[in-house]
Amino acid sequence: MENGAMKTKQNNKSSLQVQQAAAAPQTRLWKIIMVAAIAAGVQFGWAIQLSLLTPYVQLLGIKHQYAPLIWLCGPISGMIVQPMVGYYSDNCTSRFGRRRPFIAAGASLVTIAVFLIGFAADIGHASGDPVGKVIKPRAIAVFVVGFWILDVANNMLQGPCRALLADLSGGRAKRMRTANSFFSFFMAIGNILGYAAGSWSSLHKVFPFSNTKACDVYCANLKSCFFISAALLLSVTTLALSTVSEQELSKEVDEADDPDDEKLPTEKSKLPFFGEIFGALRDLPRSMWILLLVTCLNWIAWFPFFLFDTDWMGKEVYGGNPEGSANDNRLYEQGVQAGSLGLMLNSVVLGVMSLGVELIARRFGGVKKLWAGVNFILAACLALTIMVSKMADKSRRFAPNGDLMPPSAGARAGALTLFSVLGIPLAVTYSIPFALASIFSSSTGSGQGLSLGVLNLGIVVPQMFVSLVGGPWDQLFGGGNLPAFIVGAISAALSGIFAITLLPSPPPDAKAGVPVAAFH
């Protein structure tokens, strides 16, 4: 009776818990850096998407008002794919390891996707689409398929990469924070390279075959960027996976079980994947629920800026209008280009700050105090967009012919300063929440993959919310970007307050728990 109760208790594990591999010595730092470098390849592609894809979809004939709907595939796939991949990678028994098969599959799918996107116009034209500024239905179909595959593949990559970093950290809290700081640093490197490639208008000359009858210079530049993106991602992924190996997850039953006894059905075996996710949410410890809340508020603050940053520069700062006169359109394009420069500066600060997160956290009194502090910086910067916009509006100058001129140097400097300073909280956003999720899950014996997938829900749900509500919300106040930024500032302030008052401090830097995998 007592043995049966013990076995039932043993089998009714939390949905977040997974079979643990044998403990292993702490992995060398250079191997962690090799895995973190995969982020550069992933983020290079994201930077290209953010800077070039929206104009490209309109080139294919997708109307401006429908373009934002395409971006919903990112959060939708992230909501489903990352937890699913995390769950199956936690329980993968491949001889190549738990995370590496998913990382390799994700990199391969990214390569397929970027070629579909880059050659969408050519494939559409070969299938019967007309040339010129008309709707190209076949090209649009190829593009949409490629874009969905790209988002699914990127989510397949990011979750297992971060889980692999947590595995390599051997359950040590300090090493987990360091690993995620390097991941954030390489994201900044990918951003800088991606924005630089996207701004080079003659890049297509490196790949002369990219410019075709169906693909003009802009399209050829995008295609060339994706060639580089695929080559970079495949290179860093191959290098990382060939230098870091995982120990195969044991398929054997628990030694405590009697092999002659009939195996009792576990809660995990009864539940399909989505049941597993609901079970994971039900079994989340209080620390993870608070982390989800703080993360959700943090990303509600970030997404309005991510979606409308260059548009804000073009409209509110430069006074342009993409649907106005030729001069208004020219000013808007100048503002967007200035916004791209701001994103470059933001990425530089992001990279520098990422390398100092661990040191600053120690000087600041801990990671939760640092996260709270930078959330207040984020709130202040978003609120200051009002002041910069008013400054630009008051300094409007007109040419002798009546055309509006670019804003004053002070207004431009103020806007670029905001872009730059926002790199500080962004470095923490890209590292600390994921490190805390790894630390909390390691402390409770939970699977890193599924835990990070659950954390991703706190990112994609706000993204979907802002994508659907942000536009109509701005329209209520005249169609500008400032109302969404103000909501973001309030959300960032709340995130900082909850981080400092509710979020528990992570365990000491000694081992946070049993490591979830072994490496050699």
Automatic annotation (TrEMBL):
Entry superkingdom: Eukaryota
CC annotations in GO: plasma membrane; vacuole
Pathway annotation: Glycan biosynthesis; sucrose metabolism
UniProt key word Flavoprotein: no
Subcellular location field: Membrane
GO biological process: sucrose metabolic process
Organism: Ipomoea batatas (Sweet potato)
Subcellular location, principal: membrane
Keywords (A to Z) from UniProt: Membrane, Sugar transport, Symport, Transmembrane, Transmembrane helix, Transport
Xref: PANTHER family: SUCROSE TRANSPORT PROTEIN SUC1-RELATED (PTHR19432:SF70), SUGAR TRANSPORTER (PTHR19432)
Family membership noted in the UniProt record: Belongs to the glycoside-pentoside-hexuronide (GPH) cation symporter transporter (TC 2.A.2.4) family.
Record's protein name: Sucrose transporter 2x
Gene3D superfamilies named among the record's database cross-references: MFS general substrate transporter like domains
Molecular function terms from GO: sucrose:proton symporter activity
Gene: SUT2x
Entries under InterPro entries matching the protein: MFS_trans_sf (IPR036259), Suc_symporter_pln (IPR005989)
Pfam families the record matches: MFS_2
Topological type in the membrane: Multi-pass membrane protein
Residues annotated as transmembrane: 29-49, 69-89, 101-119, 139-157, 178-200, 220-241, 288-308, 341-361, 370-389, 409-437, 449-470, 482-503
